[in-house]
Amino acid sequence: MARVVSEQTMDVRVEFNHFCMQESDEDFVPVPYPDGEESPGRFLTVYEGRIDVASGGHTHVAVLTARVWDGEPAADSGDSWEAQGQAELFSETGELSFIVAGGPQLTTLDLGAAARRWAVRVRSAGRQEVALLAREGVAHGVERYLMDFWPVDE
Known about the structure:
Layout: E1 4-14, E2 18-23, E3 44-47, E4 50-54, E5 60-69, E6 83-91, E7 95-100, E8 103-110, E9 116-125, H1 127-133, E10 139-151
Parallel strand pairs: 5-10
Antiparallel strand pairs: 1-5, 2-4, 2-7, 3-4, 6-9, 7-8, 9-10
């Protein structure tokens, strides 16, 4: 049974209904955010060294909890999640940065191991509510994300 190695909760800015998490060393990200093909309707869009995440609201601050596991965690029932997706990401440094159109955010995520491929399961709630609230102002903490990372055997 997999166990949680680390857990981090942070605020993540969202701009233009998106944010991205990417390898912290931009030299390992061939297509920098926000460049790349548009993928309307997709929750996660995967690039080399980067994953773009579509949000429910235009401009706001979401709360993100990231858990790093030593193996694949059990699947969640998903009843309370409005969006879910899974992807893989190779991290050369073992650290991910969060980026919006306005630039990098101060928050980083330490995965605990460099030069490794990671699976990530992303879930989100509060999307419908933040879509409405973000029309009137900058909502804070309405949309929530849970990201589970675990190493992929290669």
